[in-house]
Amino acid sequence: MGWGWFRGWALGGGGPKGIGEYGGVPRGLRVLWVGLLLPGLTLATGASGVVLAEAGYSGFIAPLVVVTVVMGVATLFGVFTMFVAEPRDVESVAGLGWISGFLLVFALVFDCLIGLPAWIALGDAQGVRCEVVSVDDGEVAGEGDYTLYRHVVACPGGYPESYEVDRRHTGVVDLLVDPEREDTPEELRGADVLASVGYWGGVPTTGLLLVLSLGRAIYWFRTSEPSSREPAPRS
Description:
By secondary structure, the protein is α+β, with helices and mostly antiparallel strands. The protein has 5 helices and 5 strands.
């Protein structure tokens, strides 16, 4: 019963009936469920875990990770089989299933693990223009790969008083600052880079995932007839 219920839920049947029966759910709703809502809810659940982690509610992370994995499996199962109890075209959609799986993983990585924490950090950040007072001779950082130069700066409100970056600045410099001073300008600069990576990596992968899943669902909707779908054979 458990596996049958999962198959019915993943494919929009809403219950333990055979996949071919669909529990009386309209075909259009099943298309939206598998093609749009399941991928979106998977990403939303992963994002919720990141938000709670950033807020310090670590106890909710493990359950949300499990839910995200289960919903991700349901998403790929729906794209792979597209409402068919015993898919005859399983080989023809195998490649699509693998591509959707990779896109889902990369979308979760770019959107939730890379982009979202950076966007949260930048949420209250403000841009200020500071005057560079002096620059030191630099200090080798890491394993000698780069040099950090400490800039003494004069900023509106007196914060920050200094700023470290891997190249020299003269005259004026634009910095991102946290009014609450919880994140340093250096941390916000890194968050700004990660936000760009998350955006340019997340938008295409998320978009392609939704195009593939929704496109496959629409294709099924247009090429299948309700009468051609038979209930799954009883074991």
